[in-house]
Amino acid sequence: MGEKLPHRTPPAPTPDPSTRAFWDAAREGKLLIGRNTKTGKAHYPPRPVCPFDDEGEVEYVAASGRGSLYTYSHMHAKTPYVIAYVELEEGPRIMTNIVDCDPTTLRVGQKVRLVFVPSEGEGQPIPMFTPAEENPGHAHA
Amino acid sequence: MSIRGKACIAGAYEHPTRKAENKSTAQLHAEVALGALRDAGLTRADVDGYFCAGDAPGMGPLSMADYIGLDRLRHVDSTDVGGSSYLLHVGHAAEAIALGKCNVALITLAGRPRSEGMATGTAPRAGNPAQPDVQFEYPYGAAVANMYALCARRHMHEFGTTSEQLAWIKVAASHHAQHNEHAMLRKVVTVEDVVNSPMVADPLHRLDCCVISDGGGALVVTRPEIARSLKRPVVSVRGAGEAVKHQMGGQLDLTYTGARFSGARAFEEAGVTPADIKYASIYDSFTITVLLQLEDLGFCEKGQGGRFVADGNLISGVGKLPFNTDGGGLCNNHPANRGGITKVIEAVRQLRGEAHPAVQVPNCNLALAHGTGGSLGTRHGSATLVLERE
């Protein structure tokens, strides 16, 4: 057993015209992913042109916020943090941080849930993840 | 059409400096350019093709041609795929030579991240906001070391790879570096030394990482007739392959690299298999980089890399696949944070029989050099060369 990670305020992103909707949705507690209207295939990071199929339009839809830990690294920086790829219930594996956790108890495959952490400056919320309550490993904590 | 047998590496030069406090980056490019031309027995007046990448200051070939004094260029290529650029450049130079676009191609790399105090592996870089991935990665503290750590963790999870197995890669590099007077880390280390070194990005320790060094290197690629007219042993480009791998819209899989594709392409063009290779230069930004690429190049099965590298199998004179006999990026140098050109240079030394006697592979007539550029954890370029001594 180790200790819980200290709080880290992430740097703010610089939205562009194609991602403004993504960051606006984050202010409302939603994580948007791209979905092809014809094939239904989801992608991330969301972009107006589908990376998979030439046909169909892209719509931005909210992810459920449920996922599992694909891989992670505990970065031993001055302010330590855990960087990870989380596999969303909808399929895409997305880069993120695992917050509010004891890094020594994390395991690949465990369930995680979406949270938002305000970034530097104006506090733009950043989608991140934390171990889900139903995590069986929690019983050992 | 194939480039097999259409071009040779006639000159190779590695800058001896590891800390260039009193030299500029452009100066280092010029010094390695002249070094490689001298090695080949050629001069600047012979150069009609020039290749460089993102480490070349200014507007790539324009600034460098001006500064170095290359005034007969009729073919330039500044394709930047990070540290793999210079291996890709050898392939592209061979293509240009085969098509008659140039006769003598010069490739340079140089940089001074050590003198500039760059925290290469651990500091997240903000980058250009127009780069579409930056806003989805920079806020999370993505840095070089933790991106490779993500690959290592997943490999451990899927295949049971251990930190001790990864450590063997550093151990092998250190056994080679002890014989290289220019290497930054010449002390032979043990598996225990590696796994007991401070954690940087779990599961990667400090000694799982390459060095940060100044320096550079250059290569001269020519048509075979010219190479054979010179006084150096002839090293022929037998096959070249390149690939790009990325996050694939979220369908990423960190258990393999672009080497799976660039390696297969190079082997197919060369008409040989991994079992034929006597010596391999394998990009070694981190220990996990080597392990993943060895699997993807076909030196062992996917998932078996940990067993393959253990017990000194990569040590020259001890194991089955001598690798990075100059000490590699893990112990020797990693100029401009790009280890591609030094991979080709040591392969050329081995094929010429000019490696240090303690690490020279006997009768080394077929070698592989492989590079990765960018990051295995996000998006990377991959370039593989199969080289042969005539």
Automatic annotation (TrEMBL), chain A:
What residues does the ChsH2 rubredoxin-like zinc ribbon domain cover?
A: 23-58
Database matches in Pfam families:
OB_ChsH2_C (PF01796), zf-ChsH2 (PF12172)
Positions of the UniProt region annotated as Disordered: 1-20
Record-linked Gene3D superfamilies: 6.10.30.10
The residues covered by the ChsH2 C-terminal OB-fold domain are 60-117
Q: What is this protein called?
A: Zn-ribbon domain-containing OB-fold protein
Q: Transmembrane region positions?
A: none
Per its UniProt entry, which superkingdom is the organism in? Bacteria
* Source organism: Teichococcus oryzae
UniProtKB/TrEMBL annotation, chain B:
By its UniProt entry, which InterPro entries does this protein fall under?
Thiolase, Thiolase-like, Thiolase_C_2
Describe the location of the Thiolase C-terminal domain by residue ranges: 241-379
| SUPFAM superfamilies associated with the record | Thiolase-like
Q: What is an example of a GO molecular function annotated in this UniProt entry?
A: acetyl-CoA C-acyltransferase activity
UniProt source species: Teichococcus oryzae
> Entry's Pfam families?
Thiolase_C_1
Domain of life (superkingdom): Bacteria
According to UniProt, the name of this protein is Thiolase domain-containing protein
